[in-house]
Structure formats: structure tokens, C-alpha cells
Amino acid sequence: xxxxxxxxxxxxxxxxxxxxxxxxxxRVIGIDATYWIHGLNKDPLxxxxxxxxxxxxxxxxxxxxxxxxxxxxxxxxxxxxxxGVGSDPVISSARAAQLDSEAFTLYETEQGKQARxxxxxxxxxxxxxxxxxxxxxxxxxxxxFTVAPYSALAQLVYYEKHPSQFIDAVYGPSELFCFxxxxxxxxxxxxxxxxxxxxxxxxxxxxxxxxxxxxxDRRDCLAALGSIPLNVFIDSLMLAGSGLLPGFPPxxxxxxxxxxxxxxxxxxxxxxxxxSVARLCAQxxxxxxxxxxxxxxxxxxxxxxxxxxxxxDEGDVEILDKDHAPDDAHECVxxxxxxxxxxxxxxxxxxxxxxNWLTSGKISIxxxxxxGDGRPYQNLVxxxxxxxxxxALSLLTEPIHRYYHSRDITTxxxxxxxxxxKFNMRDVSYPRDLLSKWxxxxxxxxxxxxxxxxxxxxxxxxxxxxxPEFAAKTVTQKPKTGQELLKHRDEILANAVWxxxxxxxxxxxxxxxxxxxxxxxxxxxxxxxxRDEEEAALIAVELMRFELxxxxxxxxxxxxxxxxxxxxxxxxxxxxxxxACLGKIRHSAxxxxxxxxxxxxxxxxxxxxxxxxxxxLLEMIVTAMFLEGLVDRxxxxxxxxxxxxxxxxxxxCALGVLTMHFLDDLCNYPDPTSESTRAxxxxxxxxxxxxxxxxxxxxxxxxxxxxxFQGVKAAGNKLKDTExxxxxxxxxxxxx
Length: 736
Prior knowledge:
This protein has about 725 residues and is of the alpha/beta class. The strands form four sheets. Strands 4-3-2-5 form a four-stranded parallel beta sheet, with helices on both faces. Among the domains are: about 5-225, Rossmann fold (3-Layer(aba) Sandwich); about 340-430, no CATH class; about 550-595 and about 655-735, no CATH class.
């Protein structure tokens, strides 16, 4: 985040000023959400586990509360659609995966501290993923947020410069100066030492007396750089390199500038060419990275900045200064979508992922943290999940402008750079007949939902249809003009989940359970009622259908597989641990400090990919319901709809890792099945995770196993090697 050369220069020169936080009392502070996430404390083992940081929620709540207690009013702004700039996700994911590989090599050779540092450097958990978790936390805490049509930076500057001044100040990265902001808050220094929080006058609480904030004034920057013109300052920020524009290539040439180059170097380079970037590019035209390339990139970036797309105070999506915008401005920003979609995006009901696929015409499948070398994983993301991606896009495109009905889409894979899976949307069928009969109203739903089986949950969607009378009543037609639309949140969620299950083949046209639906019913009937347990059940059945829930060798050369006991012991521990990867560890809101396994992380990549695909489908199902006019749009519970849909947040592989270590360690004892041995290893396991509940987590893992095993028995000859599952279940029953 930020213009690194500028940030280093500003810190060295002491450009930032420090003021008492109380000066911001009763002020509305616009916060760039991505910058906020980068500023939070990092979980060093995050990239070793996948999933969200265990302490993220408590960290966010505490940080927000401190600022609110100090009298600040916060408004977060998130990035929306990509505008084709920033780092290539394929390249950045490959770098992160390489660092993770190096870290696991260090870990497996007992170099724990060094491994921890490299895991920390990986930084593979993308801000976009954490952004969704942050939206949930903010919504639950009652903190307002907006998702910008494109850049959060542009939206923040619009808010700050609007005549009504929706916000009083901005907290964010140094790129904001490119958008014309005058002053920028870069850091909050919160005094939260418990020793200083005694009983004092509430109007002058210790947190206000001791807390500060740092801010930078653009005028100070111009003066410190030699009283340069504003346009030179902005050009220097751009050419220094950031998410707005790659750095000017000659700056990376050590024969020109010794690394790292400084902000002063960039300014002097531009001034030497009369303040003209065009002349500068001409001067270095022999550089192949500059000739015919960089000037065009610069012009596009400048157009995006000058004519950025924002959501106005009236809810319209507009290009600023559109009277002076070039005719090809849309090529610099991105294809225009219907206003309705931007509204759903801005309210947090819809994530930008699938919209980006459509506007860019490109789906990039990036390298996971681990497992990318495994043939089963590559086949999953390239072949098995491709129909789900196409189906999600068809749900989005069918109800909108015909232009998108013939949109070309290309799919790229990091492991096969020469392959381009190109298809046209007109060749992707829209599942209208499958979905058109799911318009079930709340009066019917409420009669079958209970406190233990609430409407809108995955289990309700299947278990309610066990009743033939209810199933027959759910076959409903699209409301005609003048008829009541779907309105209640539970109506929307229930119909969306039913539509998902029918698309995935668990329900037939009469809304009865198919054979795979009965397998899913068997798993859910034996599952726990927590949301994560319900989600684990559906993912488990999906993995059965993909033939990916088994003890087969999937990741050759990866450490962290079961290593003790006989080959049968290792096989059995592997299968049970993979099933446990579907679940959630019981852990307090603190960083993880337990054992790791690259093998389990690799399997988590499989689980995560299926999880994401199901969520994508669900979001597009709901979006299509709104676009087709099936749902009442006069509402304000947009974020609640998104949060109510399953698969909002994935889990880590930590439960699989702990389960594997428990089963593996049992094999070190003469009698691995004795009660005393199991008790001793559980006691030892609690020492592995100081901030977690080891025994409780194991109970959850074994309950997931029992539920999935019921599904395997219900599947019968639909699955291969079911006798292995019988053997493993008998083996495990003596080790629980």
C-alpha cells in the first residue's frame, strides 16, 4: 500500500505532523478499508493455515472501539471493481506460494523462528478476502461502510471534496495525493495501556489525553521537494510506482539509480525533462519497457485519476468531469455495468469477483498457498469447477443488457500459461427452467421452520423437503404483475439455497431429493447444527462427487503427512484428517501457535476452491432474483442478505492439522487405543495450542467424520472403495 518511495522519504524527512486525537472529536473520518487492514497486527502463521486470522475480529473491534471512544465517527470505504491496474495476481500469488514453500522447508527442518519470519513475509491472505470479513464485523458493530464502484481512493476524495463534505478527513495511503487531496491522516497512535485507563473525567479521558494522530499536508511536501509544481508532485508519485501505475522502468535499472531509488530521484528525473512525462519517455525510448508502452500506461492512469468513477450523493454512478473526459475513458476504467449492480455492490450484498470476470473478460485462476503442484487440485480448478464458473456468469448476464450475452471470457491458469479456456456467453445455457419454480412465500416457509431448523439454512432446505406435502407446495410460479414479490429476508435466503441445491443436482424438477440429495440428507441428519458444520456437510458431498475425499496420494513431495505407525495407520489418519479439514478449530481470539502441515494446507486448497465456487453461485442466484424482479427492492437489509447466505467465510486447515497430529502421536505408544494413552496425548495436545480447546476441537472433528461416514454409507456404490471407509471408521472408533 502507498507509494513506497514517498513513504520512506516522508518518514526520513519527518514530514508528518502529530496532533492530539481529541482534535478529531465529533469529526467523520473516511477510512480506506484496504489501508486499514494493512495497518493491523499480522498473524505470522496465517499463510501456513489458510482461512481468516484467528485474532482478526477482536483486533478490529478493539481498534474501532478505541477511535469511537475518542469521539471519532468512522465511515469505511472498500474497493469495488478492478480497473486493470495494480500487481498481477498470478505473479503475486506465485511469489507468495514460493515463500510459503521455503517457510515449510525451514519448519520441517526445525528452524521454527526462521520459518515464522518467512511465513510472515508471504502475506498471501489477500485484502479482498479480509475485506469481506471486515464488512461483516463493521455491520455487526453498526459502523457504516460503502463499497466504491471502482477505487475506494476516488470515492473518499469525492466525499471529502463534496460541498456537503460528507467526511471531514481521510485516513489512507499516499496514493490519495494523486487524486488531489490536500491533507491525509496516515496513522492513529492510540494510548490503550490499561495502567492509564483509570477513573477520570469522561470529557477528558486518558485515551484522549494520550492518543495522537499523524497527518501529512501536501503543501509541506511540495516545499520540502524544492517548491515543485503540483503537477510534478503528482507525476512523481505516479512514476515512483504504486497500485495506480507501475514504477518508471529506468528507476529499477541499477546502472541509472542505485537501489532503492528515492522520491528525490523521481522528482529530479521529471524536472530534468521540463516536467514532461512525454519527454521523459522519449529520452528513455531505447528501453524496451518504456518504448511505446509506458507513456500509454501513464496516460491511462491519469485518465482514471482525473475522470474516476464514483457513486454520487444521489446514488448515481458517474465519471467525474465527464464533459472533459476522452471518448475512450471506459477503456481506462472498465466496462459500464447496470446501475442496479453498482448499488448491490455498494451496500455489501454483492462481492466484486464475478462482476470483474464479466467486465474484464478474464478469469485468472491463481496459485494457492500449497497444493498447486498436485494433479487432483489442478484438475479440480481447471475442469471440475469450470461449469460452476460458467453457470455463475450466466446467472449474472442473462437478466442484463444483451451486449453481455455475447461477451467472450478467457480463463487462464497459473500452471498452464499457454492454455486459454475461451468461451462465449451465448454458448452458456441459462438454467431458467430449473430455477423458475422457486418462489416460495414466507407464509409457507414459516410453517415448517423451527428454532432448531431456521429458514434460510442449508439443513432446512433439504430436511424440509422430506415432507412430500411441503415439497409439492414449493413448486411455485414467478409472480405476475401486481402480485406480491419475495420480501422477507428468510424468503430470499430459503429460495436462494433451494435454487443452489437444484443447480447442483440435489433436487429434481418436482423439488424432491435426488439420490445425491438423499446422501446430503444423511450427512446433515448426523451433523451438528452450527453454520460451519452445515457448510462442511455440503462441501463433503461435493468432494465425494469430485472423488476428492479419499486417502490417495495427492501431493507428492509435500511434508506434514502422517508418519507414524503402519501404512494402514498412516492411510487411516490421512483420511480422517482430510475430513477434519472441513471443520473449524475451537480457538480464542489470539494468534495460532500450534503444529503445521503443508500436506493439510494443500488439501485445504481443494476445500477452499469448492467453498468459493458455491459462494459465487449463491451470490449470483440472489443477484439474478433481484435483476429479474422477483424480489422487493424497497429495503435496507442488503448486508444482512449477504451475511445470511451460506459460505460467507471459509475455515483454516487447523482442525485437520490437530487431528492428524493426535492420531499420528497415538502410534508412538505401545497401546494407541487405551484410555490412558488417549488421555495423555490429549493433554499433550492442549500444550500444542495454548489458546485453543484441543479436546473440544477433536470432538468436533470426530463428529464431522461420523456425519460424513453416514453420507458414504448412503452413497453406496456411487463411491469407490467404500470398504476403506468401513475399515477407517472401525479403526477410529477405538481412538476417539
